[in-house]
Design a protein that fits this description.
The structure holds two protein chains of two kinds. By secondary structure, chain A is an all-alpha fold. Chain A folds into two domains: about 80 residues, Rna Polymerase Sigma Factor, Chain: A, CATH 1.10.1740.10; about 80 residues, Arc Repressor Mutant, subunit A (Orthogonal Bundle), CATH 1.10.10.10. Helix content of chain A is about 70%, strand content about 0%. Chain A is built from nine helices and no strands. Chain A is elongated, with a radius of gyration of 20 Å. In chain A, about 40% of the residues are buried. In chain B, helix 3 packs across helix 4. The longest helix of chain B has 19 residues. The mean pLDDT of chain B is about 85. Classes of the chains: A mainly alpha, B mainly alpha. Chains A and B meet through helix 1, helix 2, helix 3, helix 7 and helix 9 of A and helix 2, helix 4 and helix 5 of B.
Chain lengths: ~190, ~90
Amino acid sequence: MSSPPGPDDDARRDEFRVYVEPEIEVLLRVARAMASNDADAEDLVQETLVRAYRSMHRFDGKHPRAWLLTILRNTNINLHRRQRPLVVDDDELLRTSRPAFGTADQRSAEDAVMDLALEAELEAAVASLGPKFRTVLLLVDVHDLSYTEAAAAMGVPVGTVMSRLSRARNRVRRHLGPSVLIRGRLS
Amino acid sequence: MSGTLRQMLTCHWSARRIQRYLDSDPAAPLTPGEVARLEAHVAICEKCSAVLKENRALGRALSLWSVRRRVDPAAADRLRGFLEDLTREPRL
């Protein structure tokens, strides 16, 4: 029989909400890359929240996003009963990430045509990467995860994130070339 | 050591740090000394300056390339509601 909640429990619940609520959108984005559809992604995040809540007594209060991403990744593995390295083998992150050049202001028809060409070049460059390299590039540079958070989401050491990220960026940079990056409109 | 060789070594040293310099990620910060050495080199090395500019441009392009496939606001709201309900219950 569990004892009735006391003041400490209330404080911990409040603390849990404070840590977790701001991370829900990040969890959903990364879950969308792991799951096959939006409904499964939402279910995955929901299950992650339950598991995080149950284990919050083991959370040290540092790096809540990385902590939650680790639980998300482990939850996904447990739900599928198999190791599924994040994931982006199925290109979901790529499909759900699209360039947004020129969306913030009014652009001429010529500008729009140029943007489309550059978007296509960037998309092709990213698509040409192997899954491990593409994943880390999208998590860090598109989805704004830190090295530590990306490492948690992918289940690899930070050093591996850094080396893959470096290689991914160098490949994309070489694929695009300086004319696109500096003199083109990507800069 | 010749000036050319020293320059090559510094280019190599800089190339390995330019991304960390731009990222400023807390997991892998450059020391103040490394930052100063890198900035001094980039200021006089055309090749490394170009690499830094290209990396900066690529970062900007990717940051615009967005997610930003925004998440479904309704799904986020449902999860916030779920979180609220969850934390009203005693932990299992």
